Amino acid sequence: MPSSAYLIHPEVHTSFLSPTALQNLHYITNIPVPSTKDIPPKHALVHIRAAAVNPRDMMVIALDRATYPVKEANGIAPCADGAGEIEAVGEGSRWKKGERVIVQPSGWMDGDVPELEGMKVKGAEDVEGTLRNFMILEDGHLHRAPDHLSFTEMAALPVAGGTAVNTLLFGPVPLKKGMVVLTQGTGGVSCAIIQIASALGATVIVTSSSDEKLGIARKLGATHGINYRKNPDWEEEVLRLTNGKGVDHAVEIGGAQSIEQSVRATKQGGLISLVGILSEDRALNLIGPILFGAKTVRGVLGVNTAMLAKLLETVQEHQLHPSIAKEFEWKHAKEAFEYSIGWSGVGKILIKVGD
């Protein structure tokens, strides 16, 4: 029986914020299922059961190189987040049929951070993505899943959770118990920051546009919540909550429109991690506050093998469940991407792969 996938075939070039971009995504139902003889040594055939949607996926589908400057994708499935079970293995593979696995989202295994194109993130350029029934992957691109998670929860972890672990534990100031962490909003990365930082003993402050979302953030582990609509100068509230000192680590999600406030909310000698670019660019003058505040600004890019392994270890140890906003059935996968445009809710958007 043939398998199915959603493949990118370029028809229009547009903004990743336009639903028109989905004209480039085509549902294909006559893809042959690989046989055992098609599997190279130390590789495995994975039956993908779930995939998660990230903003980058729409950039790739839209062929929006102004926002995501890599080679155009053509004939591949999008999405870097995925999870499933081993269907068959090649000679010498360490995996066994039936084992539940999470897909490594990029080709960055170890070593220094590569450039964007060298990152070889799945679901972009010529690298196959997870929005398909079956994938053949090298053994090292698969991780054993925590026992307590569903397939959709497994797929929600790699990009958002891996980015959170990279941010918190692999930077110049690794998180320690008792530190104070600031994050923004309640998207996938922010929810993961809240859950992981609080599980490891940090005090977490979160900003959001609504009291309802802040209530959910507190349930995930946040200690304090600030409604930035009610408190537009929210950095002043952060300073009040920290007795004028500021936070040890600010995770900047918004980008140019909010980074000045994050810098002001960070303590002398503290760390600001730049994770997102969700707002329009504008002229900034941060040299003085960074220099005389002895503050470090770090760009966070990618998730390597050690980061994902540490994430899964933490999720298993603390029995964490990623926050999921909505799940879409396979035949409604395009609706998941449309739903993601301008998404400002809580948690990750997931697609159940297969009928």
Describe the protein.
By secondary structure, this protein is of the alpha/beta class. About 25% of the residues lie in helices and about 25% in strands. It is built from 10 helices and 15 strands. Strands 3, 4, 5, 6, 7, 14 and 15 form a 7-stranded mixed β-sheet that branches. The chain has a 6-stranded parallel β-sheet with strand order 10-9-8-11-12-13, with helices on both faces. Helix 3 packs across helix 9 and helix 6 runs parallel beside helix 7. It is globular, with a radius of gyration of 20 Å.
User: Roughly what percent helix?
Assistant: 25-40%
Number of helices: 10
The strand count comes to 15
Mean of pLDDT: 94
Taking Cα atoms only, what radius of gyration do you get, to the nearest Å?
Answer: 20 Å
Structural class of the secondary structure composition?
alpha/beta
Largest sheet: 7 strands, mixed
Can you tell me the overall shape? globular
SSE layout:
Blueprint (H helix, E strand, L loop, with lengths): L2 E6 L16 E7 L11 E11 L1 H7 L19 E9 L10 E4 L30 E5 L3 E3 L6 H5 L2 H12 L10 E5 L3 H12 L3 E6 L2 H10 L3 E4 L6 H8 L5 E6 L6 H7 E9 L12 H6 L3 E4 L5 H14 L5 E5 L4 H8 L7 E5 L3
Parallel strand pairs: 8-9, 8-11, 9-10, 11-12, 12-13, 14-15
Antiparallel strand pairs: 1-2, 3-4, 3-6, 3-15, 4-5, 5-7
Helix pairs in contact: 3-4, 3-9, 6-7
